[in-house]
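Exercise 3.2. Students should predict the tertiary structure of the chain below and write it as structure tokens, then compare their answer with the key that follows.

Predict this chain's 3D structure.
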Amino acid sequence: MSAYFIFTHKVLDSDTLNNNYLPKAVDSLQPYAPEILVVDQDIEVIEGDTGNNRTVVLKFKSKEDAKAWYNSPEYQAIVKLRTDSVDGTAVICDEFEPG
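Answer key:
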């Protein structure tokens, strides 16, 4: 079953996020071949008040692949670039299967 890694953030340091973190993060994804479905730094909030302005959605083949990428040495070496540059959340969700 596919799984989605969803990041929602308020960007605090766009320079570090976009110029240091993002290229390395994309490289770290290569062995896991996820689909990058959404990268939007100007989201439109329809309901509520999240305080976030950036959403990223990655589709992995499985929750195990999503966790393997997140916990990989390559990603763990750069994750602090993201966490120091944003305030927000990261979640993994299984794809909905009716039935």
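Discussion points: The helical segments are 14-29, 63-71, 73-76, 79-83. The chain has a mean pLDDT of 95.
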